[in-house]
Amino acid sequence: MEQNVKFLPTRSKSLLQSDDLHQYILETSVYPREPELLKELRHITAGLPRARMATAPDAAQLIAMLLELVNAKKTIEVGVFTGYSLLLTALTIPEDGKITAIDINRETFEIGLPIIKKAGVADKINFIESEALPVLDQLLQNHENEGSFDFAFVDADKVNYWSYHERLMKLLKVGGIVVYDNTLWSGTVAMPDELVPEFWKPGRQFTIEFNKLLAADPRVQISHASIGDGIAICKRLY
Ligand code: SAM
Ligand code: CA
């Protein structure tokens, strides 16, 4: 019994074993640095039924640093929800930066849109209401888009992560970065199958397969960080 307890999927918003430690990180290093409007969007989102979908603020802080390190100007966002990671990106890239943001659901994007407008960064965003895969394929039909994106953040349907990766390996420039979210799937990737609650199983399977493929992909340098729900940071090498 005791042995099984350690395999329960994490119920907190962090993979850290101690919620207090997670709270310490948020309160010491993340919340004091979080831009006011991003904080406002986080609070609005917290009142929604699917609030857990929003990107973890500590992971978002790391994403902002990566955006700055590669001087990201042209980016792709797959999976917008109310726009926490989108607003973070829009606030981080320069004035003339552009984000192609894709989501099948415009309604949730519109919850965050007034805050994005208040932040004065709506002009940087091209929101496309669609399945992401055809949009990425369409981008690739214009050869000028090949190797032209500095950064991508993928946080949508896990079943398509590898298909997104194949497209992004063409759209990103060499040295560009793609970050995949939820790659530890509440810790279930390391749980024995028989202990995984049914609800987590499909996403867990896709995630395990994706992580394996990514680890074997020579086109990318990888860092699999156990922040948020796990993020796989990949730099395109060639
Ligand atoms: N990054 C967001 C944030 O910081 O709030 C959270 C994204 S949420 C986890 C996942 C989003 O992916 C949802 O808004 C959902 O509508 C969208 N989505 C799911 N399947 C999709 C698909 N095939 N193409 C595009 N968007 C999709
Ligand atoms: Ca996510």
Task: Explain the overall architecture.
Helix content is 41%, strand content 18%. It is α/β, with parallel strands linked by helices and 238 residues long. It has one domain (2-236): 3-Layer(aba) Sandwich (Rossmann fold), CATH 3.40.50.150. It has a seven-stranded mixed sheet with strand order 3-2-1-4-5-7-6, with helices on both faces. Strand 4, helix 8 and strand 5 form a beta-alpha-beta unit. 38% of the residues are buried. Bound molecules: S-adenosylmethionine (SAM) and calcium ion. The site of S-adenosylmethionine has 20 residues, from helix 5 and strand 2.
The CATH superfamily is known as Vaccinia Virus protein VP39
| Number of strand segments | 7
Q: Element order, helices and strands?
A: HHHHEHEHEHEHEHEE
Taking the alpha carbons of the first and last residues, their distance comes to 48 Å
Structural class: alpha/beta
Radius of gyration: 17 Å
Number of domains: 1
Please give a quick description of this structure.
The chain is α/β, with parallel strands linked by helices and 238 residues long.
Throw out a few tags for this protein:
Rossmann fold, 7-stranded mixed β-sheet, globular, binds S-adenosylmethionine, binds calcium ion
Task: Tell me the layout of helices and strands.
Elements: H1 2-5, H2 19-30, H3 36-46, H4 57-69, E1 74-78, H5 84-92, E2 98-103, H6 106-118, E3 125-129, H7 132-141, E4 149-154, H8 161-171, E5 172-181, H9 201-215, E6 220-225, E7 231-236
Parallel strand pairs: 1-2, 1-4, 2-3, 4-5
Antiparallel strand pairs: 5-7, 6-7
The protein binds S-adenosylmethionine and calcium ion.
